[in-house]
């Protein structure tokens, strides 16, 4: 999308507003599939939690993507978007057996990550094939909150508990058709990923009925000019060779699966806000905008850096600003950032707003969640209306005072 297109969206739909570029999503999907073109059977499960708008799911499904879901609600969203049940993997954490059984009823692939549920499920439903999520005890990821494969993680069954898994499988007679791992997000060192993959390959040898091996995802995307990112081409070359070698030794062709979320949609997203006030203090110039961490929590939660550009004055002289929101507590998007000179009323664009922005948005301070717009076929399409006061009070039940 061009700057003029973003300004048109801000004018047409108001601010704040999320905008997603379908062309960029498609380019990332093609880049990943091309990187693993030497694998005979490849399946990309888009991680719905990154951006769960049904229109985005439809776009990805149309490209050939399957879906990775972590809740029964995400399963239903994927089905609502037209995804076939067999193309949905359900990988919850810490949910009840009842929710898992609801997912079974919807016909999706089940992925279990703890021994207790594995034994309960195998005892009640031994004929339903399941995938097992293994924790390889490998530390990977750009932030402790998104590193999920280490020894202290709540996710997955410890690789050291594999004998217990085997005992449950043997005792229940259940069929294991897949094995899975996810080490974390923002992975830079592909050698760490390949090391974890070797642990998964070794675990896979213990199961005779496998149909797929799921390597999760966590590929890092660039957040600023010159930023480093996961070299998916090099990873594709090395992991494909090793995967094909494993399949040959295993005795049949398996499917190599991935679950990218941020990789597919992060760079496709822009978040547009309007500057309400330019406030000079004794030490700082604040650009105060019509949004806050209720709409984009990642800088406050993860310390992430989103590039911010002044699309109303792109060729203006750079000055230093701290960009802050309108939430009634510390609410900082950027400290002392160089941005083209800002005036009140200007539109600022946050980059990398496609993943974990709207999906983590809230109504904190009773603010409305913004609209979502998809740039598709060179045209802006409204794919979620901006909330209104009616949405804020819809499910509230007023107390009748006596």
From TrEMBL:
<protein>
    <recommendedName>
        <fullName>Diaminopimelate decarboxylase</fullName>
        <ecNumber>4.1.1.20</ecNumber>
    </recommendedName>
</protein>
<dbReference type="Pfam" id="PF00278">
    <property type="entry name" value="Orn_DAP_Arg_deC"/>
</dbReference>
<feature type="binding site">
    <location>
        <position position="329"/>
    </location>
    <ligand>
        <name>substrate</name>
    </ligand>
</feature>
<dbReference type="GO" id="GO:0008836">
    <property type="term" value="F:diaminopimelate decarboxylase activity"/>
</dbReference>
<feature type="binding site">
    <location>
        <position position="302"/>
    </location>
    <ligand>
        <name>substrate</name>
    </ligand>
</feature>
<dbReference type="GO" id="GO:0009089">
    <property type="term" value="P:lysine biosynthetic process via diaminopimelate"/>
</dbReference>
<dbReference type="GO" id="GO:0030170">
    <property type="term" value="F:pyridoxal phosphate binding"/>
</dbReference>
<comment type="pathway">
    <text>Amino-acid biosynthesis; L-lysine biosynthesis via DAP pathway; L-lysine from DL-2,6-diaminopimelate: step 1/1.</text>
</comment>
<keyword id="KW-0457">Lysine biosynthesis</keyword>
<comment type="similarity">
    <text>Belongs to the Orn/Lys/Arg decarboxylase class-II family. LysA subfamily.</text>
</comment>
<feature type="active site" description="Proton donor">
    <location>
        <position position="328"/>
    </location>
</feature>
<dbReference type="InterPro" id="IPR022644">
    <property type="entry name" value="De-COase2_N"/>
</dbReference>
<dbReference type="InterPro" id="IPR029066">
    <property type="entry name" value="PLP-binding_barrel"/>
</dbReference>
<comment type="function">
    <text>Specifically catalyzes the decarboxylation of meso-diaminopimelate (meso-DAP) to L-lysine.</text>
</comment>
<keyword id="KW-0210">Decarboxylase</keyword>
<keyword id="KW-0028">Amino-acid biosynthesis</keyword>
<feature type="binding site">
    <location>
        <position position="356"/>
    </location>
    <ligand>
        <name>substrate</name>
    </ligand>
</feature>
<keyword id="KW-0456">Lyase</keyword>
<feature type="modified residue" description="N6-(pyridoxal phosphate)lysine">
    <location>
        <position position="49"/>
    </location>
</feature>
<dbReference type="InterPro" id="IPR002986">
    <property type="entry name" value="DAP_deCOOHase_LysA"/>
</dbReference>
<dbReference type="Pfam" id="PF02784">
    <property type="entry name" value="Orn_Arg_deC_N"/>
</dbReference>
<dbReference type="InterPro" id="IPR000183">
    <property type="entry name" value="Orn/DAP/Arg_de-COase"/>
</dbReference>
<dbReference type="InterPro" id="IPR009006">
    <property type="entry name" value="Ala_racemase/Decarboxylase_C"/>
</dbReference>
<feature type="domain" description="Orn/DAP/Arg decarboxylase 2 C-terminal">
    <location>
        <begin position="18"/>
        <end position="354"/>
    </location>
</feature>
<dbReference type="InterPro" id="IPR022643">
    <property type="entry name" value="De-COase2_C"/>
</dbReference>
<feature type="binding site">
    <location>
        <position position="356"/>
    </location>
    <ligand>
        <name>pyridoxal 5'-phosphate</name>
    </ligand>
</feature>
<feature type="binding site">
    <location>
        <position position="218"/>
    </location>
    <ligand>
        <name>pyridoxal 5'-phosphate</name>
    </ligand>
</feature>
<keyword id="KW-0663">Pyridoxal phosphate</keyword>
<feature type="domain" description="Orn/DAP/Arg decarboxylase 2 N-terminal">
    <location>
        <begin position="24"/>
        <end position="266"/>
    </location>
</feature>
<feature type="binding site">
    <location>
        <position position="298"/>
    </location>
    <ligand>
        <name>substrate</name>
    </ligand>
</feature>
<comment type="subunit">
    <text>Homodimer.</text>
</comment>
<dbReference type="InterPro" id="IPR022653">
    <property type="entry name" value="De-COase2_pyr-phos_BS"/>
</dbReference>
């Amino acid at each position: 999308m061009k700057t003029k297109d973003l300004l048109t969206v801000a004018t047409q739909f108001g601010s704040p507003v999320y905008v997603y570029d379908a062309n960029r999503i498609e380019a990332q999907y093609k880049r990943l599939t091309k990187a693993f073109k030497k694998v005979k059977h490849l399946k990309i499960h888009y991680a719905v939690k990154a951006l769960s708008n049904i229109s985005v799911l439809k776009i990805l499904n149309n490209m050939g993507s399957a879906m990775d879901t972590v809740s029964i609600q995400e399963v239903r969203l994927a089905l609502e978007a037209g995804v076939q049940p067999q193309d949905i993997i359900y990988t919850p954490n810490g949910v009840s057996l009842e929710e898992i059984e609801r997912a079974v009823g919807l016909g999706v692939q089940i992925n279990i990550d703890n021994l207790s549920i594995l034994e309960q499920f195998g005892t009640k439903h031994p004929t339903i094939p399941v995938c097992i999520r293994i924790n390889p005890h490998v530390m990977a990821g750009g932030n402790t909150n998104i590193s999920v494969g280490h020894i202290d993680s709540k996710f997955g069954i410890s690789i050291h508990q594999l004998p217990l898994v085997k005992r449950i499988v043997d005792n229940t007679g259940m069929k294991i058709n897949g094995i899975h791992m996810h080490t974390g997000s923002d992975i830079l060192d592909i050698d760490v990923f390949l090391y974890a993959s070797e642990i998964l390959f070794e675990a896979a040898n213990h199961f005779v009925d496998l149909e797929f091996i799921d390597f999760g995802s966590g590929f890092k995307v660039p957040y600023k000019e010159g930023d480093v990112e996961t070299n998916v081409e090099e990873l594709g070359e090395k992991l494909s060779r090793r995967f094909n070698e494993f399949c040959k030794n295993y005795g049949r062709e398996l499917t190599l699966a991935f679950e990218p979320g941020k990789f597919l949609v992060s760079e496709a997203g822009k978040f547009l806000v309007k500057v309400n006030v330019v406030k000079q203090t004794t030490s700082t110039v604040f650009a105060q905008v019509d949004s806050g961490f209720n709409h984009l929590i990642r800088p406050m939660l993860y310390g992430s850096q989103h590039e911010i550009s002044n699309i109303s004055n792109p060729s203006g002289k750079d000055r230093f600003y701290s960009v802050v929101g309108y939430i009634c507590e510390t609410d900082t998007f950027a400290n002392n950032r160089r941005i083209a000179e800002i005036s009140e009323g200007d539109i600022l664009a946050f980059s990398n707003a496609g993943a974990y922005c709207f999906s983590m948005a809230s109504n904190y301070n009773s603010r409305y969640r913004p609209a979502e717009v998809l740039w598709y076929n060179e045209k802006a399409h409204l794919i979620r209306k901006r909330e209104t006061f009616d949405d804020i009070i819809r499910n509230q039940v007023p107390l009748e005072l006596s």
